[in-house]
Design a protein that fits this description.
Elements (H helix, E strand, L loop, with lengths): L1 H10 L4 H10 L3 H21 L7 E11 L4 H7 L2 H6 L5 H10 L7 H7 E4 L6 E8 L2 H21 L3 E9 L3 E2 L6 H25 L7 H8 L6 E2 L6 H7 L11 E2 L12 H12 L1
Parallel strand pairs: 6-7
Antiparallel strand pairs: 1-3, 1-4, 1-5, 2-3
Helix pairs in contact: 3-9, 6-8
Length: about 280
């Protein structure tokens, strides 16, 4: 019987009015889920981005690459942003010159290689050099040493007439973009949508009987009303409401507290028949 009832439930039409009324009873869960989602995503964002992060400082400078005229075309093809960053700035020729300028500073070669970044934004002859370090003084010293090393590199290589330092800027703290507000809004929207669809599908999958129309369509039986177990005083029904029931009506009752449907149980069916016969 239960399998048949479930099959009928899946095929029956959805009572939209009652469906949305039941959904509105738990509508307060949506703003609650929105608040929880906002707090949760904000916490995740904060601990993943800010918590335990050490403040760093950025020193930057710019050099101008003066290529040898008769080798300018070939040199520009080779001395690109990738070659400078991944090959030349890590080569012994440049690193040795930088370490020589850093004598007595207790700064290792690996630190110099790791913290130095170079790029050629648009013009192949203008190159930006940056150093990021937890100490502003150390960042400034490494940058100064790297610029000196590049000048020496330009003097030693035939592809250049010289490498000129155009700018050696001051050290600035690295500021992260704070997107806590965006994280909170995203968490709130996600939490609200998640709870809405959870309630929607939960109510759509609910096979309990709430209205006489549902009972008539599912069980093909004439039903006058649907009551919860605690809503009926049998003694009072016998004396005052007997005329409401006819022999074409089967009183259907919901289960404990409106939970799993126990309608059509043999015992309650018999009880209904006794009422009708009395």
């Amino acid at each position: 019987m239960r399998e048949k009832d479930t099959e009928n439930h899946l095929n029956e039409r959805l009572a939209l009015r009652f469906f949305y009324l039941r959904l509105l009873r738990r509508i307060w869960l949506i703003p609650l889920a929105s608040v929880v989602g906002a707090l949760l995503l904000t916490a995740v964002y904060y601990f993943s981005v800010f918590a335990g992060r050490q403040q760093t400082y950025l020193a930057s400078g710019t050099v101008y690459l003066h290529f040898t005229p008769n080798q300018k075309e070939e040199a520009e093809d080779y001395f690109n942003s990738y070659t400078w960053q991944h090959q030349l700035m890590k080569s012994d020729e440049i690193v040795d010159a930088a370490m020589q300028a850093l004598q007595g500073e207790h700064i290792g070669r690996d630190t110099v290689k790791k913290e130095t970044k170079v790029s050629l934004p648009s013009d192949l002859r203008l190159m930006d050099v940056t150093v990021e370090d937890a100490s502003p003084k150390r960042a400034e010293k490494i940058l100064h040493a790297q610029l000196k090393a590049l000048v020496k590199f330009g003097e030693a290589r035939k592809e250049f007439t010289r490498i000129e330092v155009l700018r050696e800027g001051s050290v600035q703290p690295v500021l992260l973009t704070d997107r806590t507000g965006s994280a909170a809004v995203s968490g709130a929207v996600f939490g609200a949508l998640f709870m809405f669809f959870l309630l929607y599908f939960r109510n759509a999958a609910d096979d309990r009987v709430y209205t006489p129309e549902q009972a008539r369509e599912r069980y093909r039986l004439p039903v006058l009303a649907v009551f919860g177990k605690e809503e009926i005083d049998w003694n009072r029904l016998k004396t005052e409401d007997r005329e409401v029931l006819t022999k074409e009506v089967l009183l259907k009752m919901a289960g404990e507290g409106g939970q799993a449907p126990t309608m059509l149980e043999a015992e309650r069916r018999e009880k209904g028949k006794q009422l009708l016969a009395s």
